[in-house]
Amino acid sequence: MTTANDGTLSLQQFLPYRLSALANRISQSLAIKYSKQYGISVQEWRILAVLGEGTKLSAVAITNRIAMDKVAVSRAVKRLIEKGLVIKHLDSKDQRSHELALSNEGIEMYQQLVPIALEHEQQVTDNLTLKEQQSLLKLLSKLDNAPL
């Protein structure tokens, strides 16, 4: 699927490249929508989104959940704390660790950002039928669960 007859790699047919390029393009176009109005980055949005699910998480758990670089998560968390959108609590189970959660302001922002994100997702998937959307999610889950 990814090699030409001469043994070279066709980047446009190489799945890891296509998935990465598409994800970056979608994320960047969404970031444009909320960065001007809300002043947050893609990394900050992803952290708000995962914390918006209502769970308190450590920075390590966030890093694992959103598959983002540890340093990028750390910097984004620091900015979100400085902006008053995230609060840090000492973990009740492990006194050496901290749990992160949305502040009241963070919850408010999250609630304002969700409709923007959902509308953006709809725009991205508008040219797919409902069956194609369901198939896409199923295929992505299969790829996500594949041994690497």
TrEMBL record:
Listed PANTHER family: HTH-TYPE TRANSCRIPTIONAL REGULATOR PCHR
Alphabetical UniProt keywords: DNA-binding, Transcription, Transcription regulation
Superkingdom of the source species: Bacteria
Transmembrane segment boundaries: none
Protein name: MarR family winged helix-turn-helix transcriptional regulator
Residues in HTH marR-type domain copies: 12-145
Organism field: Thalassotalea fonticola
PROSITE patterns found in the cross-reference section: HTH_MARR_1, HTH_MARR_2
SUPFAM superfamilies named among the record's database cross-references: Winged helix' DNA-binding domain
InterPro entries referenced in this protein's UniProt entry, alphabetically: HTH_MarR-typ, Metal_resp_HTH_trans_reg, Tscrpt_reg_MarR-type_CS, WH-like_DNA-bd_sf, WH_DNA-bd_sf
